[in-house]
Design goal:
The protein has 216 residues and is mainly alpha-helical. The chain folds into 2 domains: 82 residues, Orthogonal Bundle (Arc Repressor Mutant, subunit A), CATH 1.10.10.10; 111 residues, no CATH class. It is 69% helix and 4% strand. It has 12 helices and 2 strands. Strands 1-2 form a two-stranded antiparallel sheet. A hairpin with a 2-residue loop joins strand 1 and strand 2. The protein is globular, with a radius of gyration of 22 Å.
């Protein structure tokens, strides 16, 4: 009978191949997010299009579109023949807005959250205020009280306010993140009304994340 502990150790082992696989997953994530954000799969639909044809249809840069299409082809999300790109059955079913099985809104949910965390970290580096560090710790340690969270960070993180002011700073961190996320969603829409923005937030499952910045 196999030893469960030995099996667990084997599953947790790191080796060069696994490290490179994890490292390479980042560019695949970026390519997938870009493809959905730019409506690549919806733009192709049931057609076979060249990069210039799709770029013209979507209003995107031709060279950048070609590079993205090749990346998506390498991921087996598109097929390429004689310079023309087609959707695969999976991308047509799951990544085209014309499909009832479209899951792009969930992918955009991930994209906006990842990008917002990245921008919050950039803000921390530029301002010297630990917005990212504090909010990330709050998310990673949800069971800690605010006082316990302060104790955890006070001795190791520069710029942590004294305990009485820490609650206020934590609220500011949430509001900063919400503002960044909200602006990202607004920027992804063309001249949106307030109703357009709210409906988009609801569809992407981001409405509650943005509440601190919405004033209602």
């Amino acid at each position: 009978m196999a030893n469960p502990k030995r099996k667990q150790m084997k599953n947790d082992e790191w080796h060069p191949g696994r490290l490179l696989e994890v490292s390479g997953s980042y560019w695949r994530t970026c390519a997938l997010h870009a493809g959905v954000k730019l409506d690549i799969f919806t733009g192709i639909g049931d057609e076979a299009l060249t990069a210039p044809e799709l770029a013209k249809k979507l209003g995107t840069d031709e060279d950048g579109t070609a590079r993205l299409l090749d990346a998506l082809t390498a991921m087996a999300l598109l097929s390429k023949k004689d310079g023309q790109y087609r959707n695969t059955p999976t991308s047509r079913a799951c990544l085209s807005k014309d499909s009832d099985r479209y899951i792009g809104h969930m992918i955009l949910h991930h994209h906006h959250l990842m990008e917002s965390w990245s921008r919050l970290e950039q803000l921390e580096q530029q301002s010297g205020k630990p917005y990212f560090t504090v909010l990330r710790a709050r998310v990673d340690q949800p069971r800690l009280t605010t006082r316990q969270l302060h104790e955890l960070l006070a001795d190791s993180v520069t710029g942590i306010p004294a305990e009485p002011a820490f609650r206020v700073f934590l609220h500011r961190c949430r509001k900063r993140f919400a503002s960044i996320l909200l602006q990202q969603v607004i920027d992804s829409l063309q001249e949106p009304t307030n109703e357009d923005i709210e409906l988009e937030l609801i569809e992407l499952g981001l409405h509650h994340f943005c509440k601190p910045a919405m004033g209602n």
